[in-house]
Write a structure and sequence with these properties.
Length: 450
């Protein structure tokens, strides 16, 4: 499983490139405010937002597996900025509010930085607050798996995307303080001089350029650190790699699961964690069901168990790599199968759930991800129906489940239907309105399936 502790260098490059494109659009929009007539500045902002949307759409269509949060944040900022500018100017024209000349795009001088700083600052704060619930992030988790499931790269992308968002908050806070501080204290509304242009236009552009340089240095140093630790997979390495299929088996008897407390962690191989000892790799793109059975028989020493597919995922980070999970249910009692051929012991599922809730870092990274998926699907199917409506109207109702129920259920854990219901259901504010709107626009990948 060492490949999961490695990082595709192309993904690091895309992480920096996406952020750079977003910052470039901000620079272009600010430059247009110096070149174009004031009423074209809003059009320039919308055009830059359209370019970012096109890039986001193309990347998602190709399912590149990289993080697009930086692009998405700037895209939303440009949309909100354009909307606020237009609405406030319309209200000004209708004499509902009165704006200073510098904030109206009907005449010169129009200073968009007076809008850009505070509007983008507040927008980024809201996005940070809803970070885990953004539709783009939820869709990415459904497509590519959670941070733990994706190994080292997933952890890096999760951390850096949040860092980028916080960076934007600081960036726009500085921009707001400088532009509005200068406007309220030093600016004289007679004529724009060179110092005024420098503060309102060039300072903003220079700030974005410096931020771009900072991230260039940051990600280059990150690449060097990963290279030094032999944690980078280059495009040349990918071309030489053969197809690989990783198999993980969860051996279950009654309501206990067989785990090894001295397994190596997926990402930090030097750290011992609790995980299944039944893990193997085959250097091929797929494994026949007969071979899957033979492998678990050989590793467990039990030939009469019930094999059932859990779920699998193909990696978009390292090419031709798949990770498949299986349940292997044993009849009888745990005493009948003690010990198994592999090292480990039977652990009651209640104990596993308690460790999962109180100390998830003690468990293997993929085990945590798999328990999350299994729990979400089992519990959501008990609380909600296929349409996301509550079966039991008592909000405090908290069902539980056992491994015996997992075995007896006919649940398809590969299907994301219940994951989507868990994300979007009748407990969501304005559920009916949002569901109606999704149907109107024919939204793909909605949280329910027709």
């Amino acid at each position: 499983m060492q490949d999961f502790s490695k990082v595709n260098s192309l993904q690091l490059y895309r992480l920096w490139k996406n952020l750079s494109v977003g910052l470039l659009m901000l620079i272009v929009m600010m430059a247009c405010s110096k070149i174009l007539a004031p009423y074209f500045v809003v059009i320039a902002g919308l055009a830059c937002a359209a370019i970012l949307y096109g890039r986001i759409y193309a990347s998602r269509a190709r399912n590149e597996g990289g993080c697009l949060l930086g692009l998405y944040v700037i895209f939303v900022c440009l949309l909100v900025y354009s909307f606020v500018v237009v609405v406030l100017n319309v209200l000004h024209m209708w004499a509902i509010i009165k704006l200073p000349l510098e904030m109206t795009f009907l005449k010169e001088p129009f200073l968009p930085s007076l809008y850009l700083g505070p509007v983008c600052f507040l927008t980024c704060l809201v996005l940070l607050f809803y970070r885990k619930n953004l539709s783009m992030c939820m869709d990415c988790r459904l497509r590519n798996g959670g941070p733990r499931e994706r190994g080292k790269l997933g952890i890096i992308l999760d951390y850096e995307s949040t860092f980028q968002l916080r960076n934007f908050i600081v960036l726009f806070a500085i921009l707001t303080i400088v532009t509005w501080g200068y406007y309220l204290i030093y600016y004289v509304d007679i004529n724009l001089n060179q110092r005024d242009w420098y503060v309102f236009i060039w300072f903003t552009i220079i700030l974005f350029v410096l931020d771009e340089i900072y991230f260039m240095v940051r990600y280059y140093n990150l690449y060097l650190d990963l290279t030094e630790g032999n944690e980078v997979v280059t495009p040349e390495d990918l071309n030489d790699m053969t197809a690989r299929t990783y198999l993980r088996y969860y051996v279950i008897c009654e309501d206990s699961i067989y785990l090894d407390s001295k397994s190596s962690d997926l990402v930090e191989s030097y750290r011992e964690v609790i995980d299944t000892p039944f893990v193997t790799r085959r250097n091929m793109s797929g494994v026949s069901i007969d071979e899957v059975k033979t492998l678990v028989h050989r590793m467990s020493g039990v030939n009469d168990g019930e094999l059932r597919f859990f779920y699998g995922r193909r990696s978009n980070d390292i090419r031709r790599q798949s990770l498949l999970r299986y349940f292997y249910f044993l009849d009888g009692t745990v005493e009948d199968h003690t010990p198994l051929k592999a090292g480990g012991e039977w652990v009651p599922f209640d104990v596993v759930k308690r460790i999962y809730s109180t100390s998830p870092s003690s468990l293997g990274s993929i085990l945590v991800s798999d328990i999350s998926r299994m729990s979400t699907i089992m519990l959501t199917s008990k609380i909600f129906d296929n349409e996301g409506q509550r079966k039991v109207q008592i909000r405090s109702y908290r069902p539980s489940f056992s491994l015996k129920e997992v075995r007896s259920s006919k649940m398809d854990f590969q299907d994301d239907k219940w994951i989507r219901v868990a994300i979007f259901n009748s407990d969501t504010p304005f559920f009916r309105l949002k569901k109606w709107w999704h149907k109107v626009i024919g939204r793909q990948g909605s949280t329910w399936k027709e």
